[in-house]
Amino acid sequence: MLNLWYKNAVIYCVDVETFQDSDGDGIGDFKGLTGRLDHIEALGATCIWLLPFYPSPNRDNGYDVADYYNVDPRYGTLGDFVEFTHAAHERGLRVLVDLVVNHSSIDHPWFQASRAGDPKYRDWYVWRKDKPEDAEKGVIFPGVQKTTWTRDTKRKEYYFHRFYEHQADLNIASPEVREEIERIMGFWLALGVSGFRMDAVPFMLEDLSSAHSGWEPHRYLSQLQTFLSWRRAEAILLAEANIPMDEAGDYFGTGDRLHVIFNFPLNQQMFLAFARGEAGPVSDFLKALPEIPAIAQWATFLRNHDEIDLGRLETQEKEEVFAAFGPDEDMQLYDRGLRRRLAPMLGGDERRLAMAFSVMLALPGTPVIWYGDEIGMGEDLSLPERHSVRTPMQWSAAENGAFSSARAKDCVRPVVAKGPFAFPHVNVARQKLDPLSLLSQVRRLIRARREAREIGWARPEVLKAGDGSVLALVSRWRGGGVLTLHNLADRPALAHLPEGLPFAAMSPLLRQGVHIDAKERTLRLDAYGFEWFRFEDGSGTRDEDEG
Ligand code: NOJ
């Protein structure tokens, strides 16, 4: 039987730079992270995704790589990386690293050689003699980024950059570049990682090359999967691909392309549903969810290290989410997103936060958690762009939240020190001891999700529960079933269970503010109440692999 570990993984995303500093220089490092594995293990995560930690001029939080085969000396050495993965494995935690090969930093020696006309690297990037007419279209960071083609003074040509002008797009159409990408993957796989979070996949597959080489962009994903599985059987590709659902087939193939894709559209519907206090946006989305191959998977998330991208909502819907969660202009970004953390958006209301986590964990897919959200950290809007949500982890009430022993002004970014989300109140040490804290709730929720393996495999059935604020889902797999009910509204709601479900034989897995009338098959959910049940399911199929 195949071990599709990622179907029921719980992924915790860490930025080494802001997690834990071990040597007092104000910058997080691998030794510090290794020393904090207890927290990740106790949370119940099973896999760690590391944001880029490679040598980099760091003009885009490390997504501007200057050397793919090393660790930035600010975070430690390759030796420290291996010690970290070893320690993670000892605790049963897998490690994924970011693969950022749509572009490199313009400081990368490859780009420097390319602009100098070195024949080996001449075609490693995408060059044009004249500035294309559509150069101002398709910028990813409107308001900050002006163009996608910039003139290089040395080569006297224009290079393409989908993102910032310091991130030149690699020419993936070149066979040498594709070979190098495999070399990079092979390198990190040999150091023990279980796969890659692949950056900007749809942009990687855009073919802007002038000399075509018979390269077929989406099929290239199959080649990568084949390469990966020969090198390390369990390795996966977890793709950042903000795609409409009808393109899923191109990216998953028959199960021979990407293993996991972040479900960005679902994330947007979730925030619309939270804003309205209505289940409709999520229920409707799930009813239309495409069938995907059994080995493929969605990744679900509440927040990540970027803005919440609401670009796939209708204008009116986007305005509703802005009004509910980020009404000030300063909270919004790139005309499409919110640069806030989860906890402040939900008013710091722990019941609402627990409900939000619970909904995310009940949705089809593998959950991914952004560090700090498990304790309800806040943002710092005085920091530029997306840095607002990238402040240091808050470990305790000690200086700098125990992130670093450096002077506060020497920390890589300030720890949130003012307001209701400041480190003296919001920190791991404080919440660890309190069984009612958000951290304790999130730990319990993750435990339940790990028990409820049906959720990782099933395409859930959406039930009509009566009240429009209640999201009711049934996930069935291999003879087991899980029923989850969530009240998204700030007022109580009644839910009625349909006859088909074996209500009397269901055992509760989780509960927050729910009162059950078994005779009437009715649940009364308090504001933001939720309930998870398990049951034996006669209709389950037995033809899938164990996860
Ligand atoms: C997506 C990453 O998530 C984001 O942080 C980065 O700025 C862009 N890719 C460019 O690499």
TrEMBL record:
Pfam families: Alpha-amylase
Keyword hit for Hydrolase: yes
Enzyme Commission code: 3.2.1.1
Keyword NAD tagged: no
Chain ranges of the Glycosyl hydrolase family 13 catalytic domain: 13-413
Highest taxon listed in the record's lineage: Bacteria
UniProt KW keywords: Carbohydrate metabolism, Glycosidase, Hydrolase
GO biological process: carbohydrate metabolic process
InterPro entries: Alpha_amylase (IPR006046), GH (IPR017853), GH13_cat_dom (IPR006047), O16G_dom_2 (IPR045857)
GO molecular function per UniProt: alpha-amylase activity; cation binding
Top enzyme class: hydrolase
Reaction catalysed by this enzyme: Endohydrolysis of (1->4)-alpha-D-glucosidic linkages in polysaccharides containing three or more (1->4)-alpha-linked D-glucose units
Family according to the record: Belongs to the glycosyl hydrolase 13 family.
Protein's name according to its UniProt entry: Alpha-amylase
Record organism: Aureimonas ureilytica
